[in-house]
Specification:
Radius of gyration: 19 Å
Number of strands: 8
CATH class of the largest domain: Alpha Beta
Largest sheet: 4 strands, antiparallel
CATH architecture of the largest domain: 2-Layer Sandwich
Oligomer: single chain
Distance between the termini: 35 Å
Strand order of the largest sheet: 2-3-1-4
Helix content: 25-40%
Shape: elongated
Strand content: 35-45%
Length: 161
């Protein structure tokens, strides 16, 4: 099963390595790992995706929570959340084909030079996969980069105004 784990981590040398090491030592490949600063300069948000057994992942999360660098950790897979991933792709195709793809998916053209275009798309991982497939049908994907998933829980009813 796919597990989406979100944590706040202290900005300290080696903190990310210790978290990733716990997953690796249990034989779990991290499919996606995204780290970025938060509004607190002393903390970063780390979002990771792993596939595996529910019980084992639960144990790893409990062990990760005990690390001194971890401020907060939660598996948000089954919670109400918002997740997004950014794709930037360079495609060799006719402008009309790329423009049709962008219009269909709500992507954005960043640059065009001759028959090569650089496009951007943001969405859930499955939407990014679908957009990438559509780009591949429109032309040759010369290169692409994916950001990894960023996710956050939706606000609870008590927090909404």
């Amino acid at each position: 099963m796919r597990h989406l784990i979100s944590m706040l981590l202290q900005n300290e040398a080696g903190a990310l390595s210790r978290v990733a090491g716990l997953f690796a030592s249990r034989g779990y490949n991290i499919e996606s790992l995204t780290v970025a600063a938060t509004q607190d300069i002393d903390a970063s948000r780390l979002t990771l995706v792993v596939f595996g057994d529910d019980t084992v992942v639960e144990q790893i999360i409990k062990q990760t929570a005990k690390l001194v660098d971890v401020i907060e950790i939660a598996e948000i897979t089954r919670r109400e959340h918002v997740e997004r991933e950014l794709l930037v792709a360079r495609v060799d195709a006719e402008a009309v084909a790329i423009d049709a793809c962008l219009a269909q998916f709500g992507g954005r053209l960043l640059q065009r030079s001759g028959d090569q275009s650089v496009a951007e798309f943001t969405g859930r991982a499955d939407e990014v996969d679908a957009f990438l497939d559509a780009l591949g049908q429109a032309g040759d994907i010369v290169d692409h980069a994916r950001s990894g998933i960023a996710a956050i829980e939706r606000p609870t009813a008590a927090c909404q105004k």
